[in-house]
Amino acid sequence: MKPTASPALSPPSSVHTVEAIYDAMRRNAPATVGVTTAQLTQVAPRIRVLALRTPTLPPAAHTNAYVVGPPGGPVAIIDPGTPWPDEQAIFDRALGELDVALVLLTHHHGDHVGGARAISERTGAPIAAHAITADLLAGNVPVARTIGDGETLVVGGTPIEAVFTPGHAAGHLCFTIADHTIAGDMVAGIGTILIDPDEGDMARYLASLEALLARPAGTLLPAHGDPIVDGRGKLVAYLAHRRMREQRVLDALAQLRAPATAAELTALAYADTPPALWMIAERSLLAHLGKLVAEGRVARSDDGVRYHAC
What we know:
With 310 residues, the protein is of the alpha/beta class. The protein contains 9 helices and 15 strands.
């Protein structure tokens, strides 16, 4: 999910638009679900998790911090996302005397990296991420090591394979441990995944879903929500949903028969979505339009704010 982030972590164009939309969503959201537990929960052999409260998008209120490695350590921590000292203290107590050897980041969003510097400084463990993520975090979170697609890290005798999955964020990585994949914001167990046109890419996101689907089926461990045992089924459903929405965008263009703004298209393409969510739906629609423009199936009008079918 796209988090609240400081301007240093957000594209300048989004600071007064996208973040304002997210702030409005939070103000009008119902009570968030879930609570932070005080102990690690085993979700797979050599994988434990603690959901930490973060400034993420409703209905989620937490980001899963995964601990990968044998019970006695050394371990890798993936996405210690909370920026708040009280939540960081809960995580520190849950970790106890574990030997933290590495901090891994799926991507640069604030609800995934908020506690990375603190835990790195406390434990001495270096932070590792994709090179694009390292660049986006420069000056905020010190990434000591960059990771490429297909690279395997071994921590405490546990192989962790990095899978490059851009789209939600340009430097997004998933991490596969045996038949489980820590999926970051590729999928969600609660809420949805936003592809924001300011920094996301719908075509690349769909290609990343396809790439995960081509790998051996297994359990997906998302950043938000519970494990998804039928990982393959979830990926198929996500692809089908995005393709359905793309077709509705094309249908809306055909129905209007004249160049239309994103707001006008949203009212038609997202007619099945509560109007209160249309502000955020418009961001996703713009990502779909960007893909369709790149494919030559849709064109922008001369004013730059209207779209028409080719």
